[in-house]
């Protein structure tokens, strides 16, 4: 039972709101009383101590065990662009302290710093951005560990509100331009009620595909709460296939793209190829594809455009313009006409078109020598051209509308020899070979004794016709000229048969011979040679008896032929290696005159007849010519005089 002192103390302690502690309720001399007040500094004037004097109940603006701290208040969050680099998030308010922890959307924000009591910052891990709807707010709270105190949950907008400044068609895409864009999944662009398929957005750009099935040519364009407008969609060509295209109509062309048709209908479509309007078959048109048959002519303007026309308004929606090219020409073979028109050539290949004006054929004879051909005719697979006079062999390049054949063909020229003037002398010398395409040819000389190329020069650049001035070897008989044109892909040649000049007989000494008399003749002329040499006089051999030179032969001859059977002059013939030359004007077989003309005249040995002196006559000039007497002369005179006198007298009397 408590004594009175203990009771009084207990009452006092309770009334004073103090806390006491005793070890025993038994009075001893060691009795100790400890007094504790739980409301320090009387709650700092910002609250009230509870009835047990154990803790403070703070005013609404304060916190802490003794209400010594103003409660931190969050007023705003500095929102930012979604696609900005990982930002330090700044929260504004008052009474901020370090040693705090910030939670945004349930995610702890790291590296918390309160540089002042009015701002606190932290860094939010970027991987959480993609989990948030950029258009919505997030819950934000701060735990102040130093107080301790946890703020209420605030709701703040984290990201800037997207702003769309423009929307436009960019080819096969619709492009939204602005700033502070958030992921497209949170913006949900639609065209005519159709949700667009979009790529990843950036801070200032969103690109979406134009739908395969376009709702309307002029459709509404809506982006969440950020845009409500309309846009006109034009057809757009992405590709054409094939490209390059053939120069004929052998393949249809496929145009791929978007916006060629709309579900609302009421449209017609034209393909513009160069200057031509082409109406594709309706069954060959879809929203993303057009199939049409191109023009069979090569167009100067090599572009393709698609025009969509609204039938009700006649408004035209043109597409972009796409360039195309034609397939490069291919050359398979080049053939050359035979003489005399071998300056005409035919190219066989493909993709030549049919326009003379768009075809160019060049032969590159050397680096600085491009020779242009004259085009005569063009079809899809053939080109006929005429070569100029200065034609040369070389690389053949065919240009069709400035498109060159992929690999140039080497054009060889078939040489042709028409004549050799003059025929070469047997001692050799300069000779002109006439023909065509000899300029670049090798002129080979072939005979029984030789087979080698001749040394030739040219005084003109003309190759059609052409003249080669060649130095011939000393030779005789027949020979061949093999004109050969060599190129890397094969040779062309022409063989011309000819002969050396025949022997020419200009004189023979003596110029007559007698029967049964051995006669040595010296025959002069040119083109004489010992090879297979044969000499005949009146079809009888004259045997060589001396040195044979180019211009002289000595031979022995005897004839037993009856002179009366021979007609002068007799023929002299010389054969050199079967090449024969003759003369029948120089040599006579002496024919005897009767009685040697009785020494009264001259004997013509060519025909064996006498030419008598004036005093003799007859076949052998043996008959003297009679001399008339004087009487006979007077009688003749009288006979002549009388008739004349009588005539004169008659005329006299008649006149009177």
Automatic annotation (TrEMBL):
Pfam families: EGF_Teneurin, TIG. Keywords: Disulfide bond, EGF-like domain, Glycoprotein, Signal. PROSITE patterns: EGF_1 (PS00022), EGF_3 (PS50026), PROKAR_LIPOPROTEIN (PS51257). Residues 35-68, 589-622 form the EGF-like domain. Gene3D superfamilies: Galactose-binding domain-like, Immunoglobulins, Laminin. InterPro entries: Dictyostelium_Tiger (IPR052014), EGF (IPR000742), Ig-like_fold (IPR013783), Ig_E-set (IPR014756), IPT_dom (IPR002909). The keyword Glycoprotein applies. It comes from the Eukaryota. Residues 1-24 form the signal peptide. Disulfide bonds join 39-49, 58-67, 593-603, 612-621. PANTHER family: EGF-LIKE DOMAIN-CONTAINING PROTEIN, IPT/TIG DOMAIN-CONTAINING PROTEIN-RELATED-RELATED. This is EGF-like domain-containing protein. It comes from Tieghemostelium lacteum.
């Amino acid at each position: 039972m408590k004594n009175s002192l203990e009771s009084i103390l207990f009452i006092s302690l309770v009334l004073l709101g103090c806390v006491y502690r005793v070890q025993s309720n038994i009075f001893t001399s060691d009795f100790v009383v400890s007094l504790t007040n739980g409301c320090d500094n009387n709650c700092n004037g910002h609250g009230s101590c509870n009835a047990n004097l154990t803790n403070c109940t703070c005013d609404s603006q304060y916190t802490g065990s003794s209400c010594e701290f103003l409660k931190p208040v969050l007023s705003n969050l500095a929102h930012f662009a979604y696609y900005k680099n990982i930002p330090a998030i700044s929260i504004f308010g008052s009474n901020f302290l370090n040693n705090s922890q910030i939670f945004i959307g349930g995610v702890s924000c790291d590296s918390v710093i309160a540089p002042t009591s009015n701002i606190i910052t932290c860094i939010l891990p970027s991987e959480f951005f993609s989990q948030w709807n950029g258009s919505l707010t997030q819950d934000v709270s701060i735990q102040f560990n130093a107080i301790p105190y946890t703020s209420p949950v605030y709701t703040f907008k984290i990201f800037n509100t997207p702003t769309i400044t423009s929307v436009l068609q960019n080819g096969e895409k619709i492009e939204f331009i602005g700033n502070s864009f958030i992921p497209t999944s949170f913006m949900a662009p639609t065209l005519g009620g159709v949700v667009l398929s979009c790529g990843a957005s950036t801070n200032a750009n969103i690109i979406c595909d134009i739908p395969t099935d376009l709702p309307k040519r002029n459709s509404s364009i809506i982006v969440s709460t950020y845009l409500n407008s309309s846009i006109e969609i034009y057809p757009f060509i992405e590709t054409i296939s094939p490209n390059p295209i053939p120069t004929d109509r052998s393949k249809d062309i496929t145009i791929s793209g978007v916006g060629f048709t709309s579900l609302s209908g009421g449209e017609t479509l034209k393909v513009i190829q160069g200057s031509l309007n082409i109406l594709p078959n309706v069954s060959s048109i879809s929203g993303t594809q057009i199939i049409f048959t191109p023009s069979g002519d090569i167009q100067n303007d090599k572009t393709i455009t698609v025009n969509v026309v609204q039938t009700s308004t006649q408004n035209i929606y043109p597409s972009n313009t796409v360039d195309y090219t034609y397939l490069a020409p291919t050359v398979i073979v080049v053939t050359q006409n035979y003489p005399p028109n071998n300056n005409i050539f035919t190219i066989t290949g493909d993709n030549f078109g049919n326009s003379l004006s768009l075809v160019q054929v060049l032969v590159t004879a050397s680096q600085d020598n491009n020779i242009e051909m004259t085009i005569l005719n063009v079809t899809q697979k053939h080109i006929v051209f005429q070569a100029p006079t200065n034609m040369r062999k070389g690389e053949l390049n065919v240009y069709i509308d400035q498109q060159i054949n992929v690999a140039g063909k080497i054009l060889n020229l078939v040489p042709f020899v028409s004549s050799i003037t003059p025929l070469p002398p047997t001692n050799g010398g300069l000779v002109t070979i006439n023909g065509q395409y000899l300029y670049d040819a090798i002129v080979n000389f072939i005979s029984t004794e030789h087979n080698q190329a001749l040394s030739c020069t040219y005084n003109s650049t003309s190759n059609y016709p052409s003249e080669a001035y060649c130095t011939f070897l000393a030779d005789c008989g027949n020979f061949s000229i093999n004109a050969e044109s060599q190129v890397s892909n094969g040779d062309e040649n022409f063989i011309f048969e000819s002969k050396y000049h025949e022997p020419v007989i200009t004189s023979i000494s003596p110029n007559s011979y007698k029967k049964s008399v051995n006669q040595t003749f010296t025959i002069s002329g040119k083109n004489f040679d010992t090879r297979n040499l044969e000499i005949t006089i009146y079809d009888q051999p004259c045997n060589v008896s001396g040195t044979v030179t180019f211009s002289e032969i000595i031979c022995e001859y005897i004839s037993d032929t009856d002179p009366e059977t021979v007609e002068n002059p007799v023929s002299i013939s010389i054969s050199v290696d079967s090449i024969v030359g003759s003369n029948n004007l120089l040599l006579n077989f002496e024919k005897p005159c009767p009685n040697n003309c009785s020494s009264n005249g001259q004997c013509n040995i060519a025909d064996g007849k006498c030419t008598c002196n004036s005093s003799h006559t007859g076949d052998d000039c043996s008959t003297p010519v009679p001399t008339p007497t004087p009487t006979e002369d007077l009688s003749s005179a009288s006979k002549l005089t009388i008739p004349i006198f009588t005539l004169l007298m008659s005329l006299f009397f008649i006149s009177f």
